[in-house]
UniProtKB/TrEMBL annotation:
Residue ranges: DNA binding: 39-74
GO molecular function, one term: DNA binding
GO cellular component terms given for this protein: nucleus
Name this polypeptide is given: Homeobox domain-containing protein
Subcellular location: Nucleus
Main localization (coarse): nucleus
Originating organism: Coemansia erecta
Top-level taxon in the UniProt lineage: Eukaryota
């Protein structure tokens, strides 16, 4: 008797995988332009909230995560390239 795992497969498809490429492109673009001070002002947050449809808390969490995960790596790679 074969046991199917259809429910589990459906669950995988519906699992949230982030905010999507358009939102990430907008936010990551802002972050790359502001690597010296990667903290959006209140006005910047309002603009980004309008462009992305994210809440203030979602925006805050995205920037916290990206500063911790990605920005350090990006800066490190940029410094390595500039040494050559």
């Amino acid at each position: 008797m074969e046991v199917t795992n259809a429910y589990h497969d459906d669950e995988k498809e519906n699992y949230p995988k982030g905010y999507g490429s358009e939102i990430n492109t907008i936010l990551y673009g802002w972050l790359l332009k502001h690597t010296n001070n990667p903290y959006p002002s209140l006005n910047d947050k309002k603009i980004l909230m309008q462009k992305t449809g994210l809440t203030k808390m979602q925006l805050k969490n995205w920037f916290c995560n990206m500063r911790r995960r990605k920005l350090k790596d990006t800066i490190r790679r940029t410094k390595k390239r500039s040494k050559f």
